[in-house]
Amino acid sequence: MSAASPSTTRKPSARDRLLAAADELFYAEGIHTVGIDRVIERAGVAKASLYSTFGSKDELVRAYLEGRHALRRTRLLAGLERYDDPRDRLLGVFEVLAELTGTPGFRGCPFYNASAESTRGGPIEEVSNANRAWTRGLFFELARDAGAKDPAGLADQLVVLYDGASVGGRMDQNSTAALTAREIATMLLAAATL
Amino acid sequence: MSAASPSTTRKPSARDRLLAAADELFYAEGIHTVGIDRVIERAGVAKASLYSTFGSKDELVRAYLEGRHALRRTRLLAGLERYDDPRDRLLGVFEVLAELTGTPGFRGCPFYNASAESTRGGPIEEVSNANRAWTRGLFFELARDAGAKDPAGLADQLVVLYDGASVGGRMDQNSTAALTAREIATMLLAAATL
DNA sequence: ACGATAGCAGACAGACCTGTCTAGTCTCGA
DNA sequence: TCGAGACTAGACAGGTCTGTCTGCTATCGT
């Protein structure tokens, strides 16, 4: 098998290594506390490469968040493929979240975290809003497929539960909140499809 | 009326002015992005006064969060005094939250925000956990007084709703999430006191 | 009257951060 | 073989941050 894409070569490109390092460090320790030097040291990349690839730290941060957004979409959709019944699929979102919040490295929603330490109106807010809109859209579709009378209203409720479970998972360092959210979602779903 | 306490003198003390300035700036823009110079400039206070009063920026941050904790308790308890019926008192928490998330300057939970931009294990985490424990305890008492069969379980559910409403209020810049949370809480309360 | 206390103004040190620039190395295709 | 493109190593500039230190001033209790 010949090397079809850069990602299959022996060593990942500088771009990929930078992105991987930024992802780990920014998520674990925050964006402000992690300096460029830490990122390039972990990536094993020269500073000039970072600036020729991304142009600025802000753009690196944007790329980090866009990567998180893409990863979240694929992970969530992949996790939902386990289920056939539309109701199970809707509740499956909270199963996936429970798995995520149960892992040791979980530090809450990367978009909210980034937003909390940045001033309003930058690229962070953009990606953050896109991610949020996608979540709402997913819940809307799942609610509609599950036969909810008011799918938009149910989606709003589920978003509240999702956010709450995410916060709880971070602050309490366990997945109790996600399981609680799943229970509530079960009740709401039953009430919405009467 | 003579000046009975320092807080009634003509000009607030340097400590109070520093705390007020730190509160505004840290909450509005984040802790890392706001430097000491900004704080003392707004407070109209010399840098030496800051360091002789608080000792370090970390301690100023702790004082800021402790002030927020105290303010939140009094505001919430005061807001609940409007209601007599135990059920109304429980739901009243979400009314107060709706009012808060509706105000223009609302930027989410100051404890979660501070925690999001700090490394683990400092004073921020301490105050944050204390605040969180207080909230859970309040919900437990309210749930018990409202006649819930499993007040601890209901409290867990309400905490999820509260966190979710707080996040939603910040990200969407309105109080829809808080009102949605109130609706869900109504259902949960009904189900818990059957 | 006077000493203690609190506070103001601002220079300064030392660390750290982003971003630029120079110069050398490695790889690979034509 | 050779030249272009990607990358590395690291010095450097300019700014910002926390925290310290030196003087000066005003107020207040005794």
Automatic annotation (TrEMBL), chains A, B:
Ranges of residues in domain HTH tetR-type: 12-72
Keyword presence, Transcription regulation: yes
DNA-binding region: 35-54
Superkingdom field: Bacteria
Keywords: DNA-binding, Transcription, Transcription regulation
Residue ranges of coiled coil: none
The UniProt record lists the keyword DNA-binding: yes
InterPro entries according to UniProt: Homeodomain-like_sf, HTH_TetR, Tet_transcr_reg_TetR-rel_C_sf
Protein name: TetR/AcrR family transcriptional regulator
Lineage, broadest ranks: Bacteria, Bacillati, Actinomycetota, Actinomycetes, Micromonosporales
Protein's organism: Paractinoplanes pyxinae
